[in-house]
């Protein structure tokens, strides 16, 4: 609370400095009135800063150092490349926690909602045909699917990148407003992230803006809703 009060009063100081002399200062001795007003604001900020320092001094220190495991040895590295590993490890731990959280939520949803979809009926007298995996398809099939989607939406600019051959990562841009980075695993959508047009194309980082993070959550819900192992091409078209 003391930090909020300090920030509020500091904002008032900058507003007073930015506005300068005002009409309510009058014509007689307006410079002296402005200086007195500014001194009062600075005195208030000084008192607020003292309150923040007192609040910080009253905080209970942690009982000991945080256990970072073997990552503590990274502080002994002298090369700049290895020193940057700590930040990457922290990001990987964050993504692992998110994957565990999403997996638990997905498991609960699948347990409460049973899927009784039947697309084909197999005769007991005939030998059941082995289904082909949706993860192991030729790149030509995926390319044809993306080309067909590109023709369906002329207002959307779709570009394809293959950092993990043969699984593509497509970027669907809507004007200069937003872009969706969609990662495929064969014919199945594996990951979706929505960002602003000016943000980076890193598919493992979220958008800085809350509105695009909310759109990403809705895309994840749509991805699970339209998922169909038997007809993956229809699932992708329905999602788009």
TrEMBL record:
Cite the InterPro entries for this sequence: Mediator_Med27 (IPR021627)
Pfam families linked to this entry:
Med27
Keyword Zinc listed? The answer is: no
Q: Which terms does the record give in the GO molecular function aspect?
A: transcription coactivator activity
Keyword Transcription attached: yes
Q: What are the protein's UniProt keywords?
A: Nucleus, Transcription, Transcription regulation
List, alphabetically, the GO terms of the cellular component aspect. mediator complex
GO biological processes: regulation of transcription by RNA polymerase II
Localization per record: Nucleus
The UniProt similarity line reads: Belongs to the Mediator complex subunit 27 family.
Instruction: List the PANTHER family hit by this protein, alphabetically.
Output: 34 KDA TRANSCRIPTIONAL CO-ACTIVATOR-RELATED, MEDIATOR OF RNA POLYMERASE II TRANSCRIPTION SUBUNIT 27
**What protein name applies here?**
Mediator of RNA polymerase II transcription subunit 27
> Which species is this record about?
Callosobruchus maculatus
């Amino acid at each position: 609370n003391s930090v909020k009060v300090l920030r509020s009063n500091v904002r008032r100081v900058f507003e007073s400095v930015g506005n300068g002399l005002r009409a309510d200062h009058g014509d007689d001795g307006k410079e002296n009135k402005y200086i007195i007003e500014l001194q009062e604001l600075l005195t208030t900020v000084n008192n607020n800063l003292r309150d923040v320092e007192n609040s910080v001094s009253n905080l209970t220190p942690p009982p000991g150092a945080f256990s970072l495991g073997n990552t503590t040895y990274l502080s002994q590295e002298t090369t700049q490349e290895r020193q940057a590993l700590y930040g990457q490890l922290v990001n990987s731990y964050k993504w692992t926690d998110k994957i565990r959280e999403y997996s638990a939520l997905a498991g609960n949803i699948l347990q409460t909602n049973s899927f009784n979809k039947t697309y084909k009926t197999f005769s007991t007298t005939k030998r059941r045909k082995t289904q082909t995996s949706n993860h192991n398809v030729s790149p030509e099939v995926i390319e044809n699917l993306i080309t067909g989607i590109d023709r369906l939406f002329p207002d959307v600019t779709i570009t394809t990148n293959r950092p993990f051959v043969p699984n593509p990562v497509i970027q669907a841009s809507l004007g200069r407003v937003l872009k969706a980075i969609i990662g495929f695993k064969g014919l199945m959508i594996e990951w979706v992230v929505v960002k602003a047009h000016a943000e980076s194309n890193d598919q493992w980082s979220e958008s800085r803006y809350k509105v695009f993070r909310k759109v990403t959550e809705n895309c994840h819900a749509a991805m699970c809703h339209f998922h169909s192992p038997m007809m993956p091409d229809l699932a992708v078209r329905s999602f788009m």
